[in-house]
Amino acid sequence: MSRYAERVVVVTGAARGIGAxxxxxxxxxxxxxxxxxxxxxxxxxxxDGLGAxxxxxxxxxxxxxESVGSAVSAVVEQLGKVDVLVNNAGVTRDNLLFKMTxxxxxxxxxxxxxxxxxxxxxxxxxxxxxxxxxxxxxSSVSALGNRGQANYSAAKMGLQGFxxxxxxxxxxxxxxxNAIAPGFIVTDMxxxxxxxxxxxxxxxxxxxxERSPLKRVGYPQDIAAAAxxxxxxxxxxxxxxxxxxxxxxxx
Length: 251
Fold this sequence. Notes:
The protein is an alpha/beta fold. It folds into two domains: 8-183 and 219-245, NAD(P)-binding Rossmann-like Domain (Rossmann fold), CATH 3.40.50.720; 187-217, no CATH class. The protein has helices at residues 17-28, 40-48, 65-79, 102-130, 150-170, 188-196, 201-211, 220-230, and strands at 8-12, 32-37, 55-59, 84-87, 133-138, 175-182, 242-245. Helix 1 (17-28) links the parallel strand 1 (8-12) and strand 2. The longest helix has 29 residues, at 102-130. It is globular, with a radius of gyration of 17 Å.
């Protein structure tokens, strides 16, 4: 497929996990891809392995406005434009409220919410000028509440409100803004969560699968497939929406 031929896609937090799988899917569909990540060497390694028409790895701290500005400028300089932004970068600092520190709270809010704000603000000027663009934010089923994740849940629900507001503001300029809320996805992050609660990752995955109507867990490729649709011209009349990709866990 070549739905993204001649398109330039930026994916944050894309050195591994869902971000890397999403970058790979866009590359397979013909896009030139910018892999943004805190770890520049890992970003470059991922970019080199995409098989995209053009791919670059760029260091970026999405919570820092200067870093974001420099990264977006580098992408435009090297790839010529920005057609699609996927705000995927994320971290967890899980703890019960009475144990959660201010740093735990600020780090999660800054990466997810501030990061998506800074990246979206930086790319929208290029999209508005082109009268075309797609912005996709990564929310989570945890937006609906999850024990030990007050910071993460707040950030992920905040992204849903952010998505709807940007859809209203940017729609007149030909820009679609949507979100995906993944359920349990097999990543380093969910494996770390398993170990934090004293469970082996395989057992953690088994429990998640048993709670799903589909009786399986999700994989990064499941999210990448949804992202490739929502950011395509086939989804041109979809905006302001959050798609739960969770195997029916919240039915």
